[in-house]
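re: ur question from earlier - yeah i can do the single chain one, its not a big deal. heres the input i used so u can compare w yours
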Amino acid sequence: MSDLATVSAEIAPYLVLAANSLGTSVLTAAQDEIAKRTVTAGEGFFRRLLHRRDTALGDDTAQPLLDTDRADALDRLLATLDDNDRRLLAAALTAWLNSPERDAEGFRHHVAQLAGTTGPRVVHHNTATGQGSIVASEIHGTITMGGAPQPRGDA
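and the output i got, formated as tokens:
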């Protein structure tokens, strides 16, 4: 999760930039690319974003600075994520785009929320040996092994 948290914190301001200056369609199109690893360093998402932004806006200094070096650095960060983290990032991007609050903090919140639901889980590996042995973590009802249940009563 730490890589995902680091990457999402770094890219959040630039996703806000893209959503505000270019519209959400650019990010909607990118979410599948992010999840499927088709966005790679070299000509990655942020490099493309830089070129689209320059074409759409010209030189706009009010936005966070995104130059070629920074775009390449962000693409390299994105490339460090494993497949699961990329899917989580894409899902967080979708949730963020569908939310009313499209700021960097909102994006980081969606990433943390999704990462928390898929975080590490405790897995128990139990074994049972011998005739009629069973392993169960939870039983609702009666288990009868080899015959009818014995009547309960005061005999």
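Helices lie at 2-22, 24-35, 45-57, 68-79, 83-97, 104-117. not sure if urs matches, ping me
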